[in-house]
Amino acid sequence: MMSSLNGAPLDTHAPGHEDTSITKNGFKITTRKLPILKAGPIEEMTTKLGIAPPEMIFGDNFVRIEHAASGWRIEFNAFDALDRVDKTGDSMLKVSYSKEWQQNRQKQFEDIKEVVKPFDWSYSTDYKGSTAESPAFQSTDTPIPLALLKRPDPIQFFDDVMLYEDELADNGIAMLSCKIRVMPARLLLLTRFFMRLDDVLFRIRDTRVFVEFATGEVIREYTAREEKYEVVRKVLAGTKEDVLALMRDPNRLAEYIPVVGKTLEKVVLK
Amino acid sequence: MSIGGSDLDRAITQLRACRPIPENQVRELCYKARELLIEEGNVVGVDAPVTICGDIHGQFHDLMELFRVGGDVPDTNYLFMGDFVDRGFYSLESFLLLLCLKVRYPDRITLIRGNHESRQITTVYGFYDECLRKYGSANVWRYCCEVFDYLALGALVTGAATSLTPTDGPIAENINIDIPDVDCDIEIETLNAQGEIMYRYARNSDSQSSAASQANSNPASSSPIAPPTPSLAGVTGTGATSSANGSTRNDTGAILCVHGGLSPLIDTIDKIRLLDRKQEVPHEGAMCDLLWSDPDEIDGWGLSPRGAGFLFGADIVKCFNHKNDLSLIARAHQLVMEGFKEMFESTIVTVWSAPNYCYRCGNVAAILELGEDGSNGGFVRRSNGDRGGGGGGWVLGSNAGPNGTGENRRLSSVLGDSMQRTRDGPGRRYRVFEAAPQDSRGMPAKKPVADYFL
Fold first, then answer.
1. What residues in B contact A92, CB-CB < 8 Å?
2. To pair with B263 at 20 to 30 A between CA atoms, which of A147, B75, B144, B165?
3. With contact defined as beta carbons under 8 Å apart, do A173 and A196 qualify?
4. How many other β-carbons are positioned within 10 Å of the β-carbon of residue A146?
């Protein structure tokens, strides 16, 4: 066992599992769940990405669907998702009390102006998965067949894999996680980016991947939702439910946040 | 009813079993705690030996594990650097237990404020909801928040030994680097939860090392439970250990403990003492910075990209430490996978004490033990003339420091020439521990429950 620079052990016993997988009709589904990265790998990732990774970075985790016969694959991992985060600071958000804070600061500390390493610290990503170049997805009008997915077919494989999470320095939450369920004839994968910047903004960006094993049909749907915090809060206040609890639950929130972008793609694997 | 004496011991017993105490007892406890805390300065003076702990975040069972690994109160002198509540499922039991221990053993446990000890943050991150769920009203949350307003902002540890008395514990398995001889001047030692040596570093040596696996023939290592305190006995400064320790090396400066970090408004510890702390954590100002700021690999001060909050670099820390005659700043606030992280040539350390944070990060936790410098008998406090040119003396417990700002200005200009540490850091023993066993904390199974998500 190696020892890190400050003497702490590099490996720890932690929750999670090494790869688990299932193969259905030539589609191999693999998930990996390990603890957050340690100091060394975090530094390595910081260098490669050019931005500081989120506080909780599950850099070893992934969910992958492979189709050996066609060479097609799609994988969801934290590094590739973070590589799509704006690294320039052009689309940078500000915490709710930023203006008040800045005004007080400027009077006292005119010399402290430099914003350290500006980037989109909300870790907002439009990541739709890492795919092989060919066969490639094509734009389509064919929606994911929800009716088939609402049937209570037995779930033969299920996993819920966290890719990253950040508490935005106690100003809310940003998280990217990936769920997958495999039924006898089809599978559904949902990778969700959820971001709540308190008193500022909500974002939900969902990537769904649907595979019908018998036909080799793969549909990928990307839906971006976004709304101002105050607008959502007002709507929720009218529901007579626990507003704070609702604001933590993207499953419930989605219906209150309008869609601002959507793409639908398809590929048929032989 | 009043909470005191045997009532207090009963409450402690009940809380140790992770059972909340009745609302009227909480009210009484919080009242007593406030009476006690109001007497404390913004910066509490603490004598070594002391065990410094970082964020707990309501992970009650892991707090019990911390006490198992670090020793129980009052046998061990503890300093908790805030963030007792939120995130975890047992903020209430964790905070109330710490508060009970504070009231019962005020000189053996120090609690300072974290950014989560605030009304605004606890309404968003769990503590408020938990109180509402467990008591059916927000009263208990309100009592606790009133206590938060009285918590000290920092602590100053004096009388810490420069060298550790090496632990005579067995050497951990799977360590394949030689450890320095026990005769060396030991600066850092890392032990696992069983008290086994994982790492040892001798001062002024270039090689860092870990214990050798072949040396692990000690039958004691088969014992799964380390005796909590006996292994610390060597550090706690009997006459014998202090001479074996090399009592000439007693020139470490004080250690400032604060939840977040430094503030551009604060260049001396006395300025912290002058703040009016008895209020909700403000959104800006020195008090806010102390609870929120982070060290970063930058030069000087920087603004967080989030639009609020400061970041500070190595030069700031070194200058502050020099000016205030500190050898180390201990802070918490940021998750570190290894449980602790020393930065800027060991002038600042982050200590994190919530293992497997949020029950899913898989990180280990750490506590930092500082031994007692035997030569001061654990009683005589440092004086101004202690070391030429230090200039940072102060009277503990007083809000008015004796050193004039003129001297400080002179020192900082001297420091500008060479940003060197003038103080050796204290000997640092890190005890690293993992989350309490899953079955002991009644947590839901880790395996995700399959659901028909769409």
1. 305, 307
2. B144
3. yes
4. 10
Query: Which is more confident, A172 or A102?
Result: A172
d(CA A254, CA A262): 14
Domain boundaries, chain A: 17-268
Amino acid, single-letter form, for residue B103: V
pLDDT tens, B1-10? 456 678 899 9
Mean predicted confidence (pLDDT) in A80-93: 90
d(CA B426, CA B299): 25
The secondary element (H helix, E strand) that includes residue B12 is helix B6-16
User: Distance (Å, rounded) from C-alpha A165 to C-alpha A167?
Assistant: 7
Distance between start and end Cα atoms, chain B: 54
Q: What are phi and psi of B197, to 5 degrees?
A: -80, 125
Span B418-431, pLDDT tens digits: 445 457 889 999 99
Chain A residue with minimum CA distance to B295: A116
Whether B333 is catalytic: no
Contact B335 A55 (CB under 8 A): yes
Contact list in A for residue B341 (CB cut-off 8 A) is 6, 39
Q: Which residue of A has its CA nearest to B435?
A: A14
Check CB contact of A184 with chain B, cutoff 8 Å. no
| Contact indicator for A163, A176 with CB cutoff of 8 Å | yes
Indicate the average pLDDT of chain B: 80
How far is B57 from B125, CA to CA, in rounded Å?
10
Task: Give per-residue pLDDT as tens, B287-321.
Answer: 999 999 999 999 999 988 887 889 999 999 999 99
Look at the domain B185-259+264-273+282-433 and name its fold: Purple Acid Phosphatase; chain A, domain 2 (3.60.21)
- The letter for the amino acid at B175 is I
Answer yes or no: do B356 and A114 touch at CB < 8 A: no
Query: Hey, which residues 83-122 in chain B have their CB within 8 Å of chain A?
Result: 115-116, 121
Per-residue pLDDT of B85-98, as tens digits, reads 999 999 999 999 99
Domain ranges of chain B: 185-259+264-273+282-433
Distance in angstroms (rounded) separating the CA atoms of residues A203 and B387: 57
d(CA B394, CA B403): 7
Structure tokens at B412: 């900082």
What pLDDT score was predicted for residue B32? 97
Q: What is the pLDDT of residues A170-224, one digit of tens each?
A: 889 999 999 999 999 999 999 999 999 999 999 999 999 999 999 999 999 999 9
Q: Which chain A residues touch B452 with a CB distance below 8 Å?
A: 149-150, 152, 155, 181
